[in-house]
Amino acid sequence: MNIRRRTALAAAAALTLAAAWPGAAFAQKKIVLGFSQIGAESEWRTANTESVKAAAKDAGIELKFADAQQKQENQIKAIRSFIAQKVDVIAFSPVVESGFETVLREAKAAKIPVILTDRAVNTKDDSLYVTFMGSDFLEEGRKAGHWLVDKMKDQKGEVNIVELQGTVGSAPAIDRKKGFEEVIKADPRFKVIRSQTGDFTRAKGKEVMEAFLKAEGKKINVLYAHNDDMAIGAIQAIEEAGLKPGKDIIIVSIDAVKGAFEAMIAGKLNVTVECSPLLGPQLMQAVKDLMAGKSLPKRIVTEESIFPMEVAAKEFPKRKY
Ligand code: GZL
Fold first, then answer.
1. In the chain, what are the helix, strand and coil shares in percent, each to the nearest 5?
2. How confident is the model over 75-90, as pLDDT tens digits?
């Protein structure tokens, strides 16, 4: 039975009961949302979790929250558990783009709608999810590329770039790499001389940057990090190598979390492209609309900005994550 029919029947039943038993306070059945979160790998992810939990509370939605510790098998397990519990809606941020089709088919067979938040899945069958809400990662990569091309416009000679990629196979890592390269390929001075995953974490970002510095040393002009946490880890490695982050090595990053603003104010990070984690309110509104039988757009894009170090001190007090 589809959502629309189920909701109409529930409303009719409630009205009948209310008429037969006036004065009884019928508490509207609470919507139950099952949410599978990737983990707690970065400041961004922590802010995203806080936004989802606070918004569920404000919306009066019962939230069943599962943290997957960045493991796909844990997300699949959580989604199967939500299906078994017969939740009303399932939402999740897929840790990687592939490998979710089977479990999404199981949710469809159980007539439980699925909302993708933050990251997308790579599927030809878009009936497996109702909507995907989140950033345009390709555009974030392009913004990073355009900022760097402009920053280096008067620089003579080669611009040697090392790249810290996000989680292998994840939508943000794939598209931030693609969008950045789309822009810099127009100028032969720009060369990505090393590129490796730092898995979106500070610890791995530092470790990989140490290896880049050992291999390439003073040849490195620019670091492009797919998120601020890896950039902050890399900043530690650059300083431990006796170099000045933000000066000897220009650093371009993405997310615009608090740590990035603190690094820019200290002159150690040059720019961060905004990627908002504050998806909670939008998600709860989508859940409510879905349960009210409204249709949702297939894609809801979050509008975002870019913050160079020159504006960091002015913008920092206004930041919400
Ligand atoms: C982007 C999000 C990424 C962030 C990282 O929407 O999926 O995952 O850029 C986070 O900080 O770990």
1. 45, 20, 35
2. 999 999 999 999 999 9
Ligand 1 mutation target, pool 46, 164, 227, most atoms within 8 A of CB? 227
Give residue 105 CA to ligand 1 midpoint distance, Å: 26
Q: Strand pairing of 271-274 and 306-308?
A: antiparallel
Sign of CA dihedral 249, 254, 260, 265: positive
CATH topology agreement for domains 25-134+277-302 and 137-275: yes
211 close to 241: Cβ distance less than 8 angstroms: no
Is 238 buried (19+), middle (13-18) or exposed (0-12) by CB count in 10 A?
Answer: buried
CATH number of 137-275: 3.40.50.2300
DSSP state of 249: B
Q: Where are the domains of the chain?
A: 25-134+277-302, 137-275
User: Best mutation site among 38, 44, 72 for ligand 1, i.e. most ligand atoms within 8 A of its Cβ?
Assistant: 44
Could you tell me which CATH number the domain at 25-134+277-302 has? 3.40.50.2300
| Helix, strand, or coil (residue 310) | helix
**CA–CA dist 242, 65 (Å, integer):** 44
pLDDT, tens digit (0-9, with 9 covering 90-100), for 224-280: 999 999 999 999 999 999 999 999 999 999 999 999 999 999 999 999 999 999 999
Ligand 1: which residues within 6 Å by Cβ? 41-42, 44-45, 118-119, 134-135, 172, 200, 227, 229, 254-255, 275
Q: Is the pTM of this model over 0.85?
A: yes
- Ranges of H-type helices in 185-321: 202-216, 228-240, 258-265, 280-291, 309-315
